[in-house]
Amino acid sequence: MRTRNPTPAVPVEKTTRTGRRMEHWGLPLQIEGFFGRAHGKTTLGGIQAPLHNRPLMEHTRSGSDILVRVDPGEEIHTALKELADDLGFDAAAITSGIGRTRENQYGYMDEEGVYQRRSLDLPSELVSLSGNIARTEKGDAFTHIHCCWSDDDNNVHAGHLFQATVHVVAEIHIRVMDHASMTRCPLAEFELLGLEFD
Q: Start and end of every PPC domain (predicted)?
């Protein structure tokens, strides 16, 4: 049996990737049970939930702030670019992100302006994620993200994010800059698209 949050229920607008709007009544995380709802397992609060086909990557928005839940099997860059296209914004700051991801590729830019890649294939804790979302000259969404992970031996891995697949969940905060426009343009001597402002 579900228990109510002892704090007053305040409805918050929540939108799925399919555009379906619903009200979220502030139930605690263990009752909401994102993992249990997704996989039909018992949640942290002991709630047994059945399997069902809910849409991947849901978000909630309050003003310029968006909190995104990216689900198992989704790639972070791809999910955030789809979100930018769905909501139609051209400029945003990715201020934080946590979770657990696998098949991670990250790296750094060397002295010659070329990216060097590293792999962290096993599931690891995503302890920090930040960056921004802009548009290319063709109008495509473009994500620039840096990440930090802790593997299961508590070794730290960090750098420019090339790809990361969500293993359990990723929870990411984005702040949209409604009155700004950011464009990624090629730089002559670097394997990087520079940021320009309108």
A: 60-198
* pTM recorded for the entire structure: 0.72
- 34-59 in b/e form (b: 16+ CB < 10 A) is bbbbbeeeebeeebebeeeeeebbbb
Is residue 45 very low, low, confident or very high in pLDDT (cuts 50, 70, 90)? very low
Q: Which residues pair with 100 in a beta bridge?
A: 125
- Residue 81's SS3 state is helix
- Give the span between the Cα atoms of 127 and 162, in whole angstroms: 17
Cα–Cα distance, 121 to 63 (Å, whole number): 36
The candidate with the shortest Cα–Cα distance to 177, out of 64, 88, 67, 86, is: 64
Instruction: Please give, one letter per residue, the 3-state secondary structure of 180-198.
Output: CCEEEEECCCCCCEEEEEC
Over its C-alpha atoms, the chain yields an Rg (Å, rounded) of 18
Question: For the chain, which domains are there?
Answer: 11-55 (no CATH), 56-197 (3.30.1330.80)
HEC string of 143-170? Answer: EEEEEEEECCCCCEEEEEEEEEEEEEEE
pLDDT digits (tens, 9 = 90+) for 89-135: 999 999 999 999 999 999 999 998 899 999 999 999 999 999 999 99
Of all residues in the chain, what percent carry a pLDDT higher than 90?
A: 59
